[in-house]
């Protein structure tokens, strides 16, 4: 049976449950923690799981105590509850309760991440538009494909160029990747240029890097880039960055 997982989380429901209940091997726990450190979606999925699980356990304890009290009260005063009956009652109640609780947990967490993903998709669509300038320094055939949003062809032609490193070609290749919603490759392009102080496309790359993280469903890294942009009120993308930052 395929393990259930949350949208944009690298963990399955079973993995999070096993980690929370300390059922992973030492090696599995190490791999789990490495994912947890590397990805914000992983951290959020675990936090949501633990918060909801704590609530479920508290309600479960109260529920079982009330049920057992009612069962004991219903017995004749002279009758001693049989051990096997009591044990059978607790196990069956616990199984049914946890089955319902697990379904509720999966539904709540799934809805949480679906809502987060949907929100980020909407923000990306609202703020992303391919970069344009008066004179785009691209070959005429590449420029034609770019204006027509033929991004697969743009990427293919720019990939074939050996000098497309730290140049306009790399920047527009990043835009093409982002137009294809290929965030990982877009991030690689924009990070390269954003780190080059003085590059004519450095500040534009910072803005598109933030959008790439939005598309990658990593709002924490997006906010870090946006914070850098809004710290400079002369930045060409200051107003848009401030608006987007306030919506995250």
Estimate nothing, just give the exact number of structural domains.
2
Alpha-carbon distance between the two ends: 36 Å
Find the CATH superfamily of the largest domain.
Tetratricopeptide repeat domain
**CATH topology descriptor of the largest domain:** Serine Threonine Protein Phosphatase 5, Tetratricopeptide repeat
- Name of the level-1 CATH class of the largest domain: Mainly Alpha
Which spans of ≥5 residues are poorly predicted at pLDDT below 50?
85-91
CATH architecture of the largest domain: Alpha Horseshoe
The largest sheet, given as strand count, sense and whether it forms a barrel, is: none
Q: Features of this protein?
A:
248 residues; 2 domains; 11 helices; 72% helix; elongated
Task: Please describe what this structure looks like.
The protein is mainly alpha-helical and 248 residues long. The protein has 2 domains: 13-126, no CATH class; 132-247, Serine Threonine Protein Phosphatase 5, Tetratricopeptide repeat (Alpha Horseshoe). The protein is built from 11 helices and no strands. It has helices at 13-20, 26-38, 40-74, 83-127, 140-147, 151-159, 168-179, 183-194, 202-215, 219-230, 238-247. Helix 3 runs antiparallel to helix 4 (83-127). The radius of gyration is 26 Å and the shape is elongated. The two termini are 36 Å apart. 25% of the residues are buried.
């Amino acid at each position: 049976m395929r393990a259930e997982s949350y949208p944009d989380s690298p963990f399955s429901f079973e993995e999070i449950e096993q980690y929370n209940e300390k059922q992973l091997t030492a090696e599995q726990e190490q791999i789990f923690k490495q994912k947890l450190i590397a990805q914000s979606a992983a951290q959020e999925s675990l936090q949501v799981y633990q918060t909801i699980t704590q609530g479920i356990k508290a309600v479960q304890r109260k529920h079982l105590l009330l049920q057992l009290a009612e069962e004991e009260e219903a017995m004749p005063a002279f009758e001693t509850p049989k051990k096997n009956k009591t044990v059978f009652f607790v196990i069956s109640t616990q199984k049914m309760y946890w089955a319902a609780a697990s379904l509720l947990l999966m539904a709540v967490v799934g809805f949480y991440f679906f809502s987060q993903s949907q929100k980020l998709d909407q923000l990306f669509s609202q703020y992303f538009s391919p970069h344009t300038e008066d004179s785009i320094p691209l070959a005429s055939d590449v420029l034609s494909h770019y204006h027509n949003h033929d991004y697969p062809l743009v990427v293919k032609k720019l990939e074939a160029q050996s000098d497309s490193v730290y140049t306009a070609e790399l920047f527009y290749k990043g835009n093409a990747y982002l137009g294809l919603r290929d965030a990982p490759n877009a991030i690689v392009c924009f990070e390269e240029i954003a780190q080059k102080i003085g590059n004519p496309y450095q500040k534009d790359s910072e803005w598109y890097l933030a959008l790439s993280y939005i598309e990658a469903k990593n709002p924490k890294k997006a906010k870090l880039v946006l914070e850098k942009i809004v710290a400079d009120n002369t930045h060409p993308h200051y107003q848009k960055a401030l608006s987007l930052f306030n919506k995250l």
